[in-house]
Specification:
three-stranded antiparallel beta sheet; mainly alpha; flat; ubiquitin-protein transferase activity; zinc ion binding; ligase; 3 strands; Herpes Virus-1; 187 residues; E3 SUMO-protein ligase NSE2; Nse2(Mms21)
């Protein structure tokens, strides 16, 4: 049953890697289309949707499944699994379950150290009082400033969050998370 759970987690991580790659390709297609329009300066704006789709399809056409296994977060996940398996071999049966639980808790908390915007470990985390999610302070403030200039609202960048009006006044320093990150880095 544990093997099935591990296989299921691996499949979820591979799905994540595929979605991450797709998102990256889509963003790149949009950037390339915007750059092309700026360079060409056409008299009438072409069908942007089809231009983006064309560039996106070109990027997606070179995909292979082996690329997914090179995804940074997937590789980190596999390394964590290897470490856990090594540790399990050095404990007796009763200690195994406790050690796995502890390792999963540590891995989960480390994932919470990653900013949903920068995808890097947070240095100055701030928590959104409305939805409770944390981000790197500079990254979220930059997004808020940019969107404010565009007179648009900021959606919480945490995947799955429905909060669609993040304001600078909603953000407070997340001291507990900062201490946890510092503590983890000292170990």
């Amino acid at each position: 049953d544990d093997e099935e759970d591990v296989k299921s987690m691996e499949n979820v991580m591979l799905e994540y890697a595929a979605m991450d790659r797709e998102l990256h390709h889509y963003m790149r297609a949009i950037e390339e289309t915007v750059d092309q329009i700026k360079q060409d300066k056409p008299e009438k704006i072409p069908d942007l949707k089809s231009l983006v789709k064309e560039k996106f399809d070109a990027l997606e056409s070179v995909n292979s499944d082996s690329d997914l296994e090179k995804n940074e977060k997937y590789m980190y996940f596999k390394d964590q699994l290897k470490d856990m398996k090594k540790q399990c071999k050095s404990f007796n049966d009763n200690d195994d379950i406790e050690q796995i639980d502890e390792d999963l808790a540590v891995t989960q908390s480390q994932m919470n150290f990653i900013c949903p915007i920068t995808q890097e470990e947070m240095k100055k985390p701030v928590r959104n009082k409305v939805c409770g999610h944390s981000y790197e302070e500079d990254a979220i403030l930059k997004i808020i400033q940019t969107r404010k200039q565009q007179k648009k609202k900021v959606c919480c960048p945490k995947i799955g969050c429905s909060h669609d009006d993040v304001k600078g006044s909603d953000l407070v320093p997340d001291e507990a998370l900062k201490r946890a990150i510092d503590s983890q880095n000292k170990q």
